[in-house]
Structures are given as structure tokens and as C-alpha cells.
Amino acid sequence: MTDCLFCKIVAREVPADIVHETDRTVAFKDINPTAPVHVLVVPREHVEDAAAITPEHADDLAALVVAAREVAEAEGVGGPDRGYRLVFNVGPDASNSVPHLHLHVIGGRAMTWPPG
Ligand code: 5GP
Ligand code: ZN
Q1: Per-residue pLDDT at 1
Q2: Residues with CB under 6 A from ligand 1
């Protein structure tokens, strides 16, 4: 995708605070964090959103979740004593604003349920 913000971050055409990378994923700090830890993990390959995931995306999807755990551990919220929330927003009711699949890793404070 030529005009996708997160594709541009993956390609290093737009700056971001990148904290983790694998052959399939890039993770960077959210520009408007909602918690002390707020990192977005994205696939290098453009995928529109979680609703566009098919079985062909299985490897990317597993890589996103593994990367999220590694990010959480590196940020000090992994392990049995802390915790974090993983979120895919899909569509306007969930306020999805960037059309490139991204897994939010949110932690560092106690969170309520249900979310707002
Ligand atoms: P969504 O609401 O689509 O699930 O989440 C998009 C997230 O991307 C938001 O939390 C927003 O703060 C973040 N974001 C939007 N633009 C940028 C940007 O240019 N750089 C970074 N690092 N985060 C961004
Ligand atoms: Zn993209």
C-alpha cells in the first residue's frame, strides 16, 4: 500500500519509536498513549483490519501475538504478577482509525471491564 501510514512506518518513511521487530512484525509506541505501556504491533504486510484476516494470515497473526508478549515482557508488564490488554479495533463503532491491522498492547495500570 503506497498511502498507508503504518506501511510507511514499517518502511521507515515516517518516524516512530520502534521497540521490537521480527521478520513479520514491527512494534512501535502509540503516539497518543492510553496507559503507561501502549505499543502497536503491526504486520509488515498490509492487512486492512482483523475482519480481513483469513487462514492465509495465520503465520502473521501468530507472529503478532508472540511479538505482543515479547513487547509486554520487555516493557515490564508480562509474567504472572502484572498483565496487559491486547486489542484489535474493527470498524467505526470500535473507533478504528488507521486501516492497517494493528494489535494494541496496553498495560502498566489496572484496567476496567467492560471497556468504554
Ligand atoms: P485504532 O483506533 O485504529 O485502533 O488505533 C490507531 C492508533 O494509532 C491510535 O491509538 C493512535 O494514537 C495511533 N496513531 C495514529 N497515528 C499515529 C502515528 O503517526 N504514529 C504512532 N506511533 N501512532 C499513531
Ligand atoms: Zn499498510
Answers
A1: 66
A2: 5, 16, 28-32, 40, 89, 95-98
